[in-house]
Amino acid sequence: MSSKRKSLEIETLRGLACLLLVLYHVIGPLGGGLKIDLGSPFRVIADSMVYVRMPLFTFISGYIYSLYKIRGNDFAAFFRGKVRRLIVPLFCVGVPFSVLQAVGPGVNKDVGVTDALLSFYIPVNHFWFLQAVFIIFMFVGLLEWRGLLRTATRLYLLLAFAAAVFLLPTFKVDAFGINGATYLLPFFVAGMIGQEKVDTFRHFFKVIGPWVFVMISLALLYVAATDRELIVDRRSLIGLTVGCVSCFALLSSEMRSKWLTWLGGYSYAIFLFHVLFAATSRALLGRLGVKDESVLVVCGLTLGLFGPVLLSTLFSRFNFTSVLFLGERARVKKPVGQAATAPQPDGCAQG
Q1: Dihedral sign, CA of 168, 148, 75, 8?
Q2: Which residues span the membrane (predicted)?
Q3: Which pTM does this prediction carry?
Q4: 39, 64, 162, 251: which has the fewest C-beta neighbours closer than 10 Å?
């Protein structure tokens, strides 16, 4: 199987993860987003995503990390790369967004200015993923650097450890997103295993993989429609099992979509900026008196997906904005007649 084909399939999953993430934040949790009440089909859809949405994002991060993991003893370069990719946008996008939310009129979430300014330490918005996955990268990267993950057995032991931590009570203080890190760690490790054993998974589960995911999705929709309290708790054995099985099923399916692949190429920008555009859509349509839920969801989803794509295209034109707002590597200028060095994949989290 060629690397290009593998890339297309992973980019398709990235695009699917983006679609699920933006749709959820457009609909919003109960009392948030569009404030859609219980009983609405959109509320059922939003609740049913909880076991798949962020696990899939993290699974892909682990998969890509396994492709571009630390080589040799260059942990310092690995650390600097993750700071650039994750922490710089946290300060340049996440904190300003939280401050804007604190002082802006008509927002659904009540955030104090102090909490917003300290959101780099105690997460208050979806940017908790940046802090959480940074911790994961440092933890797994250190193990890799010290040569502790060189065998499949050790990787499976790490998955068992991650599952145990996942099921433990959360920390009282969510310092730097530590609770998010313990929640996401098993899915990240599952992604690493998925990459190492991708041919095995696809050989044995290619046919049943798509059906497994469809059956899981239908079951989640049914449970969310009948008793949402059974499904909203993410940190449970059921949540862990369903999340991992769903990710492996999707990986085994070898799903490819040109549209989702294209969308997946902008996954990080979509993660960073989709809430801003979704909120803008909600505010504009509200001023126009639009109340139809379907129109609000479709418009919010469209703007939440394509707004960040346009913003990413603009920011990527300039080193200053691409580094600060997208965490990209600065392009090195070459003498006339030579092409500039393009950023290479570094296994970073997508949003």
Answers
A1: negative
A2: 12-32, 44-65, 86-104, 124-143, 155-171, 207-225, 237-253, 265-285, 305-326
A3: 0.91
A4: 39
